[in-house]
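Notes, Module 5: Reading structure tokens.

Key idea: the token line is not a picture. It is a compressed description, and you learn to read it the same way you learned to read a sequence, by spotting repeated patterns. We will look at two proteins. The first is printed below with its tokens.
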Amino acid sequence: VDCSFSRGVCDWKQDTNDDFDWNPADRDRGDGYYMAVPAFVGHKKDMGRLKLLLTDLKPKSSYCLMFSYRLAGERVGKLRVFLANKKTAPVWEQNKGKDERWRTGKVEIFQGAETTNSIIFESERGKGKTGEIGVDNVVLISGLCPEE
């Protein structure tokens, strides 16, 4: 999986049972697109989910999900990552940005006998009226996540 959203949304699908959709947004310097949820969309606690179905992950192996993310604006909300076989708890969560810069998120995915069949990015609307939650450059590589 290697998706920078500059040529569309790759194989990502909008969840039809959520409250709002993620949408492509222009990068400031005109170098492509990313997926975003503006702060003013929906009501407090509403959710938007972007889902990627995974078909070829091998059992008993490890993978690294790496992505760029940005939480811009005061009380903008939360960004979570879920793996479909562990639906109850997010494997990664961030609820505010120190500033408006893009940061890198990493999630180790360890496959047991049951393989993960999807990755879900979930945005939860906060109280804020300005800013946005953004995701870009989603990459899934085999092996452990590289150290900084």
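Here is the second protein, with the sequence above and the tokens below, as before.
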Amino acid sequence: GVFLYNHLQQKVRNAEALAQKYKQQQEALSAQLQVVYEHRSRLERSLQKERGEHKKTKEDFLVYKLEAQEALNKEKQDSMNRYGALSSQHKILKNQHDDVKKQLLDLQLQHNSLKLEHRKSLESHSQKFAQLQQEKDSEVTNLQDTVFKLREESKLLRKAHQEVHSQLLSAQAQMEEFRQLKEALQKMPGLR
């Protein structure tokens, strides 16, 4: 009985020691678990904060992207408007240049025609004058009247020739001005 009692007491002491050991382990595990919970709580708060900041950053980026897109679209529209205006101006100037070129060609043709007519008229007048010189002395008075009329006509032709020549010079100056304007337009980067 004593032996059994001692044996049972030994088992109780061993059980108490084991229970004490398990209790200490449980307390250590509880402390570790508490640390883990606190760490997890901090991580969750940090994650929540990061998510909030990420959401705000994403919203800010979307707003910035939208504003940048609007600014780009506005700049693109302005550029297209400027290009359209320059293109229209270029077409107008090109049409004016073509008109002036055609006008210059017409004036050159008119000038050449008047020049030829003037030369033919001078030749004709010279022939008539020579012929009239050879006619009878009785027709001297009539010849003088005719020569006077022919000289007046020659003056008018010369005057017309001078006017056409002046118009030609003016048209050439205007064409040079349009050429310079065309070169200036071609140097503009938007038009190119």
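Summary for the second protein:
- The chain has two helices and no strands.
- Residues 26 and 32 are 10 Å apart (CA to CA).
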